[in-house]
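Weekly puzzle thread! Below is a chain. First person to post its structure in token form gets bragging rights.
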Amino acid sequence: MSYTWKIYMLAIISFLVGTSEFIIAGILDKVALDIGVSVSAAGQLITVFSLAYAFGTPFLMAMTARVERRKLMLYALGVFIIGNAIALALPGFESLIASRIILALSSGVFVVTSLTVASNMAPPEKQGSAIATLVMGFSTALIVGVPLGRVIASVYDWKAIFGGIGLLGLFAMLIVAFVIPRTEGEEPVPLRKQLGLLKERRIALALSVTFFWIAGYSIAYTYISPFLLTVTGMSEKTVSAGLFAFGIASLIGSKLGGFSTDKWGAPRTLIGGMLLHTASLLLLSFAASSPVLVFPLLMLWAFSAWSTGPTQQYHLISLAPKASGIMLSLNSSVLQLAMAAGAGIGGIVVEQTSLTSISWIGAAGVAIAVGTAAASFSLSRSKSSKSGLTLKERKLQKVEA
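Winning reply:
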């Protein structure tokens, strides 16, 4: 089909954009050493990125809603290249912070716009698959991009990674310019309307699940490289292999999470996955000094953590089917805020206690998400039950009439 290969081209570019986001966690210790800051301070580069993405992307998307979509993607990629160039060329922690903000804003605009374009290119019955392909490209950055970046940073300078990403960004612009068709903009959805959904208790509670789940995950993942090097005592090569295994497990978890949601439903899959997530982080804290035990626990952690993603998105859409786009946008912002909070809390933990504490504190965050999810599903069932009674009453009224 003519549209399929175009969507795969967008997925490849999404992989590039995703790598620019995730790569910092894989090379955090090297960045900290080179720019002369502590590991916890370097971890705030993830906080800055996530905050800029969470707050900046909705505003930019609202401002550029009427801009033709292909042109908007080209603008976003142009700014994306500038962000990478700053990381490559300018020294110092402040320059790196500026780079992360620019990369966050450009990545957010590109990802949201490309999802819209991919959905429009595919026929109605294939739109879900088109979006899934794009998300898969973004997620593959964890599997290939992060461990590959770790290897490059070990052999060359870590700044070379951003130089390479920036150079590939130029090729990405050519692909978008010559392959992706024009897609007209749309009427902007006011931010007031988007935030209005948060007034509904069920939706606010469901989005809280995303926050606590990702915050717990981020507390541990942000500092995973220094954790494996100093606490577990892994070598450079073993850390790269561990990050690769982590990415593979996350991909499998994401796939099986979607399958489990279809077969056994969202409540069992979501709560079961997060319970396993909590257990894996707790076990990781006990087995931290044993590379033989840590390696499979890393994979169990990644598998359980990412099995939650598709299930949570399905749950959110089911709460507001007529506003699915807004729900996913809100979820994306909450996710980035949680990443920021997790990186910030993790930095305090590393600074005030030790690296060994990040896994069990992360587990505590995910455990809160389990309780929140149980409350969310209970509230949804209660509301559905009341709606069902109202429907029966209406039918009886019609019969009596």
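Puzzle host: Confirmed. Bonus trivia for everyone else. Confidence is low (pLDDT under 50) at residues 389-401.
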